[in-house]
Amino acid sequence: MAAGSVMNWGSTKTAARSMVTFDPEGLTWAQRDGDACVVCHKRWPRPRMRVGRLPDDSPVLACGDCAEALLPAPAATVVAFPSR
């Protein structure tokens, strides 16, 4: 999880990846406005992956490479072995 972020817990006490709330204090204006990646500050191409939100529900965006590192990998698919 990125520095300055806080994980919110749902009513079932499970973390929701779409509910990561970032503290705006450590972000630049460009990062707060979605004009720069929240992790690496890259401005071009403009970040497009939503990785969380600010306390006012504004989206927090990251470039593709950083978003992949921030978001948890999907759970592995469980494959049943044939019974004998």
Tell me about this structure.
This protein starts with a strand and ends in a 14-residue tail after the last helix. The protein has a domain of 55 residues. It contains two helices and four strands; from the N terminus they run ββαββα. It is elongated and about 60 Å long. The N terminus is likely disordered. The strands form two sheets. A two-stranded antiparallel ribbon has the order 1-2. It has a two-stranded antiparallel ribbon with strand order 3-4. By secondary structure, it is an alpha+beta fold.
The pLDDT mean sits at 77
- Strand residue content: 15-25%
The CA-CA distance between the termini, in Å, is: 44 Å
Low-pLDDT segments: 1-18
Overall geometry comes to elongated
Based on secondary structure, the structural category is alpha+beta
Radius of gyration: 16 Å
* Strand order across the largest sheet: 1-2
Q: What's the number of helices?
A: 2
Write a compact overview of the structure shown.
Helix content is 13%, strand content 15%. The protein is of the alpha+beta class. The protein has a domain at 1-7 and 26-73.
List the helices and strands and how they pair.
Elements lengths: L4 E2 L14 E2 L6 H4 L16 E5 L5 E4 L1 H7 L14
Antiparallel strand pairs: 1-2, 3-4
